[in-house]
Amino acid sequence: MAIPRAAKTQRRTRIQEEKEEQILEAALEVFSQHGFRGATIDQIADVAGMSKPNLLYYFRTKDAMHRALIDRVLDTWLDPLRAFDANGHPHQEIRSYIRRKLELARDFPRESRLFANEVLQGAPHIEDELKGPLKSLVDEKAEVIRAWADSGKIAKCDPYHLIFAIWSTTQHYADFDVQVRAVLGQDQAGEGRFEDAARFLESMFVKGLEIHE
């Protein structure tokens, strides 16, 4: 994990912590709009409302700011999958997972776009995490889904592609929010669009996994 320079001092003050958060908030805004390659330290300093030298006291490089944000996003994004409970009822666990993912799309759209930009650029900063901790967690939860299918609780399916499908359909509401709102129109593009999406996706995935005799 990227550690800000100020965090390495023996006694970290409240002001230092607030400055780091101020910088990361600005960096998130810039990275989510322009991607890593298109973002500059000058842009981040401008959005943060501070001088470039002051910003560089806390984070020496653009990479350090980006890495700190990506680490946070990965941790937040994986929480719903970690909560996927092997002892729960499959249908309820899938419904809960869909809702948690949609809540992240609703509450953290910039973080979603930051992550999407990183992956679209070939994941140069997080390849090790994708192949390591992320893969291990997905492998673990894929075994849970496979066990549900083997015990007759849900229909046979490829657990990895089920997880991918949930990822893509839920994160669509963050990464393509402008398109979603434009197509839905004024009457349907309010906050209720997430509840409408949740009901539809729950029905689609749960019904698709029902066993038909």
CATH superfamily of the largest domain: Tetracycline Repressor, domain 2
Give helix and strand order, one letter per element, not per position.
Answer: HHHHHHHHHH
Count of spatially separate domains: 2
| Mean pLDDT metric | 90
Distance between the termini: 50 Å
How would you sum up the major sheet? none
Low-confidence stretches: none
List keywords for this structure.
Arc Repressor Mutant, subunit A, 2 domains, Tetracycline Repressor, domain 2, 0% strand, 74% helix, 213 residues
Structure notes:
With 213 residues, the protein is mainly alpha-helical. It has 2 domains: 5-65, Arc Repressor Mutant, subunit A, CATH 1.10.10.60; 71-208, Tetracycline Repressor, domain 2 (Orthogonal Bundle), CATH 1.10.357.10. Helices cover 74% and strands 0% of the residues. Helix 1 packs across helix 2. The relative contact order is 0.11.
Give a quick summary of the entry.
The chain is an all-alpha fold and 213 residues long.
Topology diagram in text:
Layout: H1 14-38, H2 41-48, H3 52-58, H4 62-82, H5 90-107, H6 109-120, H7 127-150, H8 159-175, H9 177-184, H10 192-208
